[in-house]
Amino acid sequence: MVFLLCLGLISCKETEPADDPTIKPEENRFTKVVLTEGMDEPMEMTFLPGKRVLIVERKGGVKILDENTGEMTLVATIPVNTKYTNKEGAVREAEEGLMGVIAHPDFEKNHWIYLYYADPVDTQHVLARYELDGTTLKEETKKILLVVPTQREECCHTGGGMVFDQEGNLYLTVGNNTVNPRTGSSNLDERPGHENSDDQRAPGNTNDLRGKILRIHPEDDGTYTIPEGNLFPVGTEKTRPEIYTMGHRNPWRPTLDSETGYLYWGEVGPDASVDSIWGPKGYDEFNQAKGPGFFGWPYFIANNRPYNRHDLATDTYGAPYDVNNPVNESVNNTGLRQLPTPVVPAFIYYPYGVSEEFPMLGSSGRSATGGPVFRKNDFSKNAPFVFPAYYEGKWLIVDFMRGWIMAVTMDENGDYQSMERFLPNDNFSSAIDMDFGPDGALYVLEYGSAWFRGNSNSKLVKIEYNAGNRKPNVSVSADVLAGAVPFTTNFSSEGTSDYDDYDQGKLDYSWSISSDNGTKEVLQGENASYTFETPGVYKVQLTVTDTKGESNVANLELIAGNDRPAVSIDFNGKNRTFYFGENTLDYQVSVSDKEDGSTSDGSIKSEEVAITFDYVPSGFDPIEMASNQSGAESMAVLNIGRNLIEASDCKSCHQYDTTSIGPSYTAVAQKYSNTPANVDMLVSKIINGGSGVWGDHAMSAHPQLSEADAKRMVEYIFSLNEVNPTVTSLPLEGKLKPEIPADEDGQGGFLLRAFYTDKGAGNITSLTGEDYVALRNPFLDPQLSELRKGVQLLTTPSINFFMVGDQSYIGFKDIDLTEVKEIVLYLGISSRNGAKGASVEVRVDSPNGTIIGQTEKVTEAPNGGFRPPAGVSRLEWRRQNSAKPTAKLSEISGKHDIYFIFKNADAKSEEILAAINEIEFKK
């Protein structure tokens, strides 16, 4: 596999042209620079004087990146809660922890920063102020300003974004702290014992701080006052005066327009992928508040689309909520019954599928983050990277899942006008925070690809604008990034470029290879190769210099001395895309690692491999899924430490929970807190021995142990005094029993995942491997198609996914066709919309690819009326009243992109052929 990293720096030495706000700058005037990588769940950032960036990590890390030196310094580790424990006592990873940070506007004078975190003991979130002196966070200066009571039995949503306005008022986003209903809909459960599933008790409650954006004025003594102009005046019965806006599900990163004072933020919506009896499908939102107000949740979403009343005790539905008269009648409401009006609709909103209103946002997973509004007056005149006037007043927004940044243009009233893709050739996936720095560059903090663990691809990126000479854009790749020694890697600079004509063909290339083991090598040329013979972690830096003497670099990290483990799931020849209703599914997981051995020879034990099997609802929250899987992963890694203890002579002196010659491991864990200093101290004792702490008996030395193995043993010992996830990993092979949970609609699927973290090699870091099988329902919703031509999606008065014109098509990527014998299309063909009917070709790999099946032509569908009869579900009624052309498939297996081409040569290009309701894959 080739790993590619594109970087570039800029220069502003040449005279800049006039800044014309009507001229869009060339894309190549912006340079994406990676400042740091490999953080442990970064959450939010704030800027400090002297080109320093303060970053907080979910598990409590507070770090400062010094751009002058490139050094990252751990300032403090804040004790935080990171676990949920439900009523049954099951423990899993929580979305909460250290969630937000911001520096005071007068930081240069008072050195104050504000942290928002989950209290390590009490069920509450805390806003606290600390003094930061250089790289020292003074614990004795801590002042708790605000406490938000919470529940930590069930996932999810914390918020935690902060921003100051020009009057020194602090805005804080607070999530709803409510269960995600498996329906992917609104949370309206008023049954006794289900309070955590009722969002009427938080976002819809005027007397609760959750599901809100708060506005307070921090005072010098560590308290706060209420500024004028919040939603409820101080003293209003059954309200909290801190509330600025309410009716939010999970508001993330807020920003303020310094010219208008308008507040902007991203908001994560529910997971339903289609409209249904409970109301609208899920939408994420980018929102604007021109002042205080009620933004609708849990009664309304998107452009105030109402949910239907739902009595979960009887599982009956009523009328939709009235946007002109919103009331909170829940038994869990402690606030006002009558909610504020008018209900503010979303500024921008989009579902999983293509948005009719905002089609540029595409279709995919979604998680609206937010972003800043650009105002040139926010920066000093000598700021080097300030964006051009073309972006004046535009709101730059980013989505965590989709990887784009959009520039949103508003009119003179602040109303939405248009949007365009910013840097369309770049991807900003997993962006969890984004803001302009004092130097005028746009900074993007990226969390990384996997939830609840440190990711090597987490990073802080800055985007610099340059109107003068452009430094080279450097691309670097390697065909091998890790391996047992010796191994040879081939480096390539393919993709490196310079946009200035006078530099074409005249760039100089220099490769530097270095490691803490003493290696220092320099190679020349556009491409290079190197043989790694000594174990270590190596930094490979390519420096490219142009004819003006301006240089730019790109880096790779290589690991010599440890091969990446290979993990595979043998699914016994079954289809790896669809679940066809089997009662059992056979599987076998195998792991092989050059240093550790394999599962087949017993060197890698079953409990060291994390294997999970989960039901995935049709609308699901990936964070909840990751919570269970992350627990299995962490326990598998801890089991490696336990097995190292079992294989050593340690048990001759120590027992797990009783005193022997030496103290029990539990007593050690209780005596020492789990800090980096204590870990290092105990590692040293294990390797070098020691005495005098627990009694007269000396502890034997174990010089044969590597520091890495000793550290794994210490981490297991510390886990004995910690709350660990209550998860059970599956065995390496067996029979899965797919079971659809009670109250589920059966439209979801199943996920089988195997994950292994190897033991490293000596002191060389561990590497991971994984494999998974994601089984979805064999009925596919056309709205989830990734490939389209001639599609018209109407959402009122009901959902209709129309195919328009001859040769229109939809397609799905990476569908396993193993065992699939036929495909049934459920089509709506009605004279009311003039549908002409069609036959359908099934092709693979492209719209012009091999035909593997074809249906008969259908021109009409049954008409069963507008509503299902008593006792018939809406889904079954729709299927009964669809035309069902069927394509018998020629023999085919493996994964393919699959296309459905609708054909009717007699139809005009604008005429509807049919509406697709569903597509069923059958064995």
Account of the 3D structure:
- The protein is mainly β and 923 residues long.
- Among the domains are: 473-560, Immunoglobulin-like (Sandwich); 566-775, Cytochrome Bc1 Complex, Chain D, domain 2, CATH 1.10.760.10; 779-922, Sandwich (Jelly Rolls), CATH 2.60.120.260.
- The chain is 8% helix and 37% strand.
- Strand 15 and strand 16 form a beta hairpin.
- The strands form 15 sheets. Strands 13, 14, 15, 16, 17 and 21 form a six-stranded mixed sheet that branches. Strands 49, 51, 52, 54, 57 and 59 form a six-stranded antiparallel sheet that branches. Strands 35-41-40-37-38 form a five-stranded mixed sheet, with no helix packed on it.
- Helix 2 (622-647) crosses helix 5 and helix 4 packs across helix 5.
- Residues 1-16 have low confidence and may be disordered.
- The longest helix has 26 residues, at 622-647.
- It is built from six helices and 59 strands.
- It is globular.
- Residues 175-208 are annotated as: Disordered.
- Residues 472-555 form the PKD domain.
- Residues 636-721 form the Cytochrome c domain.
- It comes from Algoriphagus halophilus.
- Residues 175-187 have a biased composition (Polar residues).
Give a topology summary:
Blueprint lengths: L2 E6 L21 E8 L4 E7 L3 E6 L3 E6 L4 E7 L5 E3 L5 E3 L4 E6 L3 H4 L1 E7 L5 E10 L2 E14 L9 E6 L5 E5 L37 E7 L5 E2 L17 E4 L4 E6 L6 E5 L16 E6 L3 E2 L5 E2 L3 E2 L1 E4 L4 E5 L27 E3 L17 E3 L24 E5 L5 E6 L5 E7 L8 E6 L5 E5 L12 E7 L7 E6 L3 E2 L3 E6 L15 E8 L4 E5 L2 E6 L3 E10 L5 E10 L5 E5 L14 E9 L3 E2 L11 E7 L5 H26 L17 H7 L4 H13 L18 H13 L13 E4 L12 E9 L10 E8 L3 E2 L6 E3 L1 E4 L5 E5 L3 E9 L5 E7 L10 E6 L5 E5 L19 H7 L5 E3 L6 E9 L8 E11 L1
Parallel strand pairs: 17-21, 35-41
Antiparallel strand pairs: 1-34, 2-33, 3-4, 4-5, 5-6, 7-8, 9-10, 10-11, 11-12, 13-14, 14-15, 15-16, 15-17, 18-19, 19-20, 20-26, 22-23, 24-25, 27-28, 28-29, 29-30, 31-32, 32-33, 34-36, 36-39, 37-38, 37-40, 40-41, 42-43, 43-44, 43-46, 45-47, 47-48, 49-59, 50-53, 51-52, 52-59, 53-58, 54-57, 54-59, ...
Protein name: Cytochrome c
Keywords: Electron transport, Heme, Iron, Metal-binding, Transport
GO molecular function: carbohydrate binding; electron transfer activity; heme binding; iron ion binding
